[in-house]
């Protein structure tokens, strides 16, 4: 692949290649060994048009650990604020010859559009409700490490599915790897036509969690609700917040995931989030660095192997 814009175009063997390399980087990270210099001599620019803690920090760390020159554009202080368009901004940075452009944008499709205008590799760090491919890859690696496999698992993705790029990328990835996916949440937060994706849909959380191996909670994304229906937090927690009583419906060894940032007491009880026997939320963060290292390493190999294709 020239870019990493989404999970949709990836084949299962390509997903496995990223996860295998990330697993090796994760093992090195734990032993604090040097990671080599896969990105030495390359320039990585991070452009985040939306707030981020985990994704931005881990892309920066990943690039630095692999020897790239990393520049974080402060979009709040950029000429975007003077009215410069996304494409003009990208073309301006492109003229400085970066090799890797990491982009987060509030509008679905904005990162794909930008990738058509620049001649470097582009990584989607989350675009609107569309995709967040590195999040799905780090979630997959976390599941594979915790459960020992990434196929034939029962996985419940719970909460605000309609506004979630994390849900979309995970549905695509976990489906490609032949898992059974259940979506759990109120009908008002389910996208139209979602059953066509080969998933089961539940509005009763206890039934949706019955016997599952993985419980993946999602943040209630009020900023994307466009003035539509916003549930009361109290009511939402009562029906769809993960607490000990609802988690007891899942398999006894089920793991609990959340991409962060979390709304404690809204979609998840703080004690569940912090329970080191069930929650792998901190592992997800740790795998984020390893997966982003692997993704950029593989794109850089492609850049080096096919410079004409990339620079055409
Ligand atoms: N999960 C995730 O994308 O978190 P950030 O918004 O903090 O990057």
TrEMBL record:
<comment type="function">
    <text>Reversibly catalyzes the transfer of the carbamoyl group from carbamoyl phosphate (CP) to the N(epsilon) atom of ornithine (ORN) to produce L-citrulline.</text>
</comment>
<feature type="binding site">
    <location>
        <position position="219"/>
    </location>
    <ligand>
        <name>L-aspartate</name>
    </ligand>
</feature>
<dbReference type="InterPro" id="IPR002082">
    <property type="entry name" value="Asp_carbamoyltransf"/>
</dbReference>
<protein>
    <recommendedName>
        <fullName>Aspartate carbamoyltransferase</fullName>
        <ecNumber>2.1.3.2</ecNumber>
    </recommendedName>
</protein>
<comment type="function">
    <text>Catalyzes the condensation of carbamoyl phosphate and aspartate to form carbamoyl aspartate and inorganic phosphate, the committed step in the de novo pyrimidine nucleotide biosynthesis pathway.</text>
</comment>
<comment type="subunit">
    <text>Heterododecamer (2C3:3R2) of six catalytic PyrB chains organized as two trimers (C3), and six regulatory PyrI chains organized as three dimers (R2).</text>
</comment>
<dbReference type="GO" id="GO:0004070">
    <property type="term" value="F:aspartate carbamoyltransferase activity"/>
</dbReference>
<feature type="binding site">
    <location>
        <position position="104"/>
    </location>
    <ligand>
        <name>carbamoyl phosphate</name>
    </ligand>
</feature>
<dbReference type="InterPro" id="IPR006130">
    <property type="entry name" value="Asp/Orn_carbamoylTrfase"/>
</dbReference>
<dbReference type="Pfam" id="PF00185">
    <property type="entry name" value="OTCace"/>
</dbReference>
<dbReference type="GO" id="GO:0006207">
    <property type="term" value="P:'de novo' pyrimidine nucleobase biosynthetic process"/>
</dbReference>
<comment type="similarity">
    <text>Belongs to the aspartate/ornithine carbamoyltransferase superfamily. ATCase family.</text>
</comment>
<dbReference type="GO" id="GO:0006520">
    <property type="term" value="P:amino acid metabolic process"/>
</dbReference>
<feature type="binding site">
    <location>
        <position position="55"/>
    </location>
    <ligand>
        <name>carbamoyl phosphate</name>
    </ligand>
</feature>
<feature type="binding site">
    <location>
        <position position="82"/>
    </location>
    <ligand>
        <name>L-aspartate</name>
    </ligand>
</feature>
<dbReference type="GO" id="GO:0044205">
    <property type="term" value="P:'de novo' UMP biosynthetic process"/>
</dbReference>
<feature type="binding site">
    <location>
        <position position="132"/>
    </location>
    <ligand>
        <name>carbamoyl phosphate</name>
    </ligand>
</feature>
<feature type="binding site">
    <location>
        <position position="54"/>
    </location>
    <ligand>
        <name>carbamoyl phosphate</name>
    </ligand>
</feature>
<feature type="binding site">
    <location>
        <position position="135"/>
    </location>
    <ligand>
        <name>carbamoyl phosphate</name>
    </ligand>
</feature>
<dbReference type="Pfam" id="PF02729">
    <property type="entry name" value="OTCace_N"/>
</dbReference>
<feature type="binding site">
    <location>
        <position position="260"/>
    </location>
    <ligand>
        <name>carbamoyl phosphate</name>
    </ligand>
</feature>
<dbReference type="GO" id="GO:0016597">
    <property type="term" value="F:amino acid binding"/>
</dbReference>
<keyword id="KW-0665">Pyrimidine biosynthesis</keyword>
<dbReference type="GO" id="GO:0005829">
    <property type="term" value="C:cytosol"/>
</dbReference>
<dbReference type="InterPro" id="IPR006131">
    <property type="entry name" value="Asp_carbamoyltransf_Asp/Orn-bd"/>
</dbReference>
<keyword id="KW-0808">Transferase</keyword>
<feature type="binding site">
    <location>
        <position position="165"/>
    </location>
    <ligand>
        <name>L-aspartate</name>
    </ligand>
</feature>
<feature type="binding site">
    <location>
        <position position="261"/>
    </location>
    <ligand>
        <name>carbamoyl phosphate</name>
    </ligand>
</feature>
<dbReference type="InterPro" id="IPR006132">
    <property type="entry name" value="Asp/Orn_carbamoyltranf_P-bd"/>
</dbReference>
<comment type="pathway">
    <text>Pyrimidine metabolism; UMP biosynthesis via de novo pathway; (S)-dihydroorotate from bicarbonate: step 2/3.</text>
</comment>
<feature type="domain" description="Aspartate/ornithine carbamoyltransferase Asp/Orn-binding">
    <location>
        <begin position="153"/>
        <end position="298"/>
    </location>
</feature>
<feature type="domain" description="Aspartate/ornithine carbamoyltransferase carbamoyl-P binding">
    <location>
        <begin position="2"/>
        <end position="144"/>
    </location>
</feature>
<dbReference type="InterPro" id="IPR036901">
    <property type="entry name" value="Asp/Orn_carbamoylTrfase_sf"/>
</dbReference>
